[in-house]
Amino acid sequence: MRMIHQMIVLAMLACLATFAAAQNEDPGDLTQIKTLSIDRGLTEAGKNCVTCHAKVSPNTTNDWRHSRHGHVGVSCIDCHAVPADSETAILHDEVFDMSDYDASMLEDEVHISVLVPPSTCARCHAVEHEQFTESGHYRSYHQIVPKDNLHALTDVHEGQNHPELAGAPNETGCMQCHGTEIKLDEDGRPTPETWPNAGMGNVYPSGSTGNCTACHSRHRFSIAEARKPFACAECHLGPDHPNIEIFEASKHGHIYNTRNDEEWNWDVAPGAWEVGDFRGPVCSTCHMAGIGELKTTHNISERLYWVSWAQRSSVRDSDDPMSPILGDGPAGRDKMEQVCSACHSSLHTDSFFQQADKAVRLYNQAYYDPAKEMRDELEEKGLLKDNPWGDDFQLTFYHMWHHQGRRARMGALHGAADYAHWHGFFELMQDIYELEEIYEQRIETGEIE
Fold this sequence. Notes:
Layout: H1 2-24, H2 44-56, H3 58-66, H4 68-72, H5 76-80, E1 90-91, H6 92-95, E2 111-112, H7 118-121, H8 126-133, H9 148-158, H10 168-178, H11 223-227, H12 229-233, H13 243-249, H14 251-257, H15 283-287, E3 317-318, E4 327-328, H16 329-340, H17 346-380, H18 392-413, H19 417-445
Antiparallel strand pairs: 1-2, 3-4
Helix pairs in contact: 2-3, 13-14, 17-18, 17-19, 18-19
């Protein structure tokens, strides 16, 4: 009897282990599945989309299946369907070769668009959309439109005025972060000169501005993915604004890079992601997350005091999203200090910002102001070359504010000593000495060397 009892117990334990494993196993990879039927409260049209796209684009369907959209019954057609008279409308059966699939899956005259503007996302995410339109991200492309000097840089100089290929630097570079005005061909499809791109500030044919998938990449739209610093690093990196490098060089980055994964919970619902879910902050923690009494925000300008990317840093004082000084500086500092207080004492926070503010003011007063004064005088006397990129003074002046000056300010404001000093003020020092030498020679001789 004892042996029979033991065998029964062992069998029950085996069943329980199998059940537990089944609960924890990966839900599966749809890329290998050729037939799929998902109900989940979807409309018939939605079910047809999923069934067909599991064959046509299995990886896309796989991402959707794991997404919150998939869990709550939001399907392909809910985002991609458009009225027949929409400028981006394409009759569905003209998009795909349906000869290998069941044509009965299609509803009559289904029009879709490959483009999904943020106005579509706003149907469900209205607050987030409104916050975005009030942020500096909103003008990512709009601010480029009037800048002839920037277009000259990418097309004339970088693109070398090539009759066919001059647009390449912009198409593969600038617009992939800043976005562009998406144009359509005669069939209503986006042109290769303007799409695909992951730019934050895309302007869609409807006029809707933004790009939610810049951070929440399609078709999983993961909140965890958007929270991690790599989402920001796609654009905020490099010599002119090395924010991800600065973060990694800071104490916050040190904690993040040496973390134990079990100490971090990336999937908590918005507004509930608090200290305890993470050991140290990342970009989204300080600039977007709901911490303490602060609510979550998609207005990334809301908690800022200085304009640290401009030629000269000013305290933010504008409610116009197109203004470079967008924001309320004192209110922004107060909110950021609330974020800091979740982990630091007031003495630590106050002293940190005193150090950082001193660095910003030093850049303004000891570097930018005298350099700008020299530049203005040279321009007045006709001692600057027409081509700024072939002029040692203008090129050094540009690097001073656009590269070294940004690194010094952003390094100080994010606690990254090497960027504040060696990549910042040390190189600023060399710039100002070089500018002074060129200035004195041109003023003395009245000629451009």
